[in-house]
Amino acid sequence: MPDTRYHWTLLFLAVAFTVAVGWIVVPPLVESDLGVVQAFRDAFANPYSSGFAVNTLFTFAVLCVWVTYEAQRRGVRRGWIAIVVCLVPGVAAGLATYLLIRHQKIGPQTWRRR
Question: What SS3 state is found at 86?
Answer without folding.
Answer: helix
